[in-house]
Amino acid sequence: TACGGGDAGSGGGSDRITLGFSQVGAESGWRTANTKSVQEAAKEAGIDLKFSDAQQKQENQIKAIRSFIQQKVDAIAFSPVVESGWDTVLKEVKDAGIPVILTDRAVDSADTSLYRTFIGSDFVIEGQKSGEWLVKEYEGESGPVNIVELQGTTGSAPANDRKKGFGEAIAADPKFKIIASQTGDFTRAKGKEVMEAFLKAHKDIDVLFAHNDDMGLGAIEAIEGAGLKPGTDIKIITIDAVRDGMQALADGKINFIAECSPLLGPQLMDLVKKAVKGEQIPQRVLTEETTFTPEQAKTALPDRKY
Ligand code: GYE
């Protein structure tokens, strides 16, 4: 990539960095915490943030990115709603000489020179940790263990990867059976709706694996509405560990959560500064995360910031 040694900031002689950020939407507690982290970190770092909410639509993100190019921002960061279909617009950004930082979600572009780095979690590992917990939980028990899965947004990196990781972890034992799997678009409302349909179609559900807390929380409403006890009659595994999810875990309605940190803002701003200066940055920046049982949730809850 080209790296001129010139002044950061193209406009008006100011050396403040302008960052265009295209967010996925406001679909979950995770997303709200992520937006807050990015906005606060930009302020803290003295970076001018142009923030755009795509309402879970790729076409809106593409429009936002094109408008950032026109506004001659110094850097563009975005959290791609789905993995594919970015090559054309990313080529346009590259031709404009603007560095791109993928935040939270990956793209499947073969040409990795279209972006400078990707900061976020390893979603495959989150799925694996979820599956490994389940394997331990049913150790020594005979099957079948009937699992329903609430997938995240179709085509998104976290939905693809969490499904993959979970599937790999439970594959070793044929007693684990995924009897239904459908998208709940990472929202509470859809999680509830799809779980209601699962409960109508299947009388013998043992486990729910939801790709995020919010869908799990929606599903809990559906399970209670059907006269069943979440966490007991149906075991529930989710991903994220936002406050509402952690509360349900502490209350025994969720059994296990694999953490996914939304607090990407400070690291993102550091990377933006370096990218704009033309400094070298790693191609991949991984977030550190853990897992929670009900007991661990009780301990962690008082200090949970989101
Ligand atoms: O798990 C979910 C959100 O991309 C990691 O998106 C993120 C996911 C997160 O809607 O709650």
TrEMBL record:
The keyword Cell membrane does not apply. Transmembrane segments: none annotated. Its main location: other. It comes from the Bacteria. Pfam families: Peripla_BP_4 (PF13407). Keywords: Signal. Residues 287-306 are annotated as: Disordered. Residues 20-280 form the Periplasmic binding protein domain. It is found in: Cell envelope. Belongs to the bacterial solute-binding protein 2 family. This is ABC transporter substrate-binding protein.
